[in-house]
């Protein structure tokens, strides 16, 4: 009988460690989701208060305000070259 226990005990121990680790990960994920939901709700409430204070009606004019560049994306000088090769010719 003790032979069976000696054989199964390491597997049971590893299984319990795995279970505790997975439980901790799931609880942390649940807590993170709740915190993110609360932060989004708080940010949305703040945004609504700012818009109301400034006199903007979100329901009638969604997206009516252009961004700081007039709604157009401006390309930075020199641009971005994801290939990493030089554009200059010699």
Mean pLDDT, as a whole number?
Answer: 78
Order of helices and strands: H
Kindly estimate the percentage of residues that lie in beta strands according to DSSP.
under 5%
The major β-sheet equals: none
- Count of strand segments: 0
Counting DSSP H or I runs of 4 or more residues, the number of helices is 1
General form? rod-shaped
Structural class: mainly alpha
Distance from first to last alpha carbon: 82 Å
Helix content: 55-70%
Spatial extent as radius of gyration: 28 Å
Uncertain runs are none
Task: Output the keywords.
mainly alpha, 1 helix, 59% helix, 90 residues
Question: Any overview of this molecule?
Answer:
- Residues 31-43 have a biased composition (Basic and acidic residues).
- The chain crosses the membrane at residues 6-25.
- By secondary structure, this protein is mainly α.
- It has a domain at 1-60.
- The protein is 59% helix and 0% strand.
- It is built from one helix and no strands.
- It has one helix at 2-54.
- The chain starts with a helix and ends in a 36-residue tail after the last helix.
- 0% of the residues are buried.
- The mean pLDDT is 78.
């Amino acid at each position: 009988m003790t032979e069976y226990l000696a054989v199964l005990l390491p597997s049971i121990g590893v299984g319990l460690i795995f279970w505790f680790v997975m439980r901790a990960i799931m609880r942390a994920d649940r807590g993170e989701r709740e915190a993110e939901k609360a932060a989004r709700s708080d940010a949305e409430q703040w945004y609504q208060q700012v818009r109301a204070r400034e006199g903007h009606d979100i329901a009638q004019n969604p997206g009516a305000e252009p961004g700081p560049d007039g709604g157009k994306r401006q390309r930075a000088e020199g641009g971005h070259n994801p290939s990493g090769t030089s554009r200059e010719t010699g």
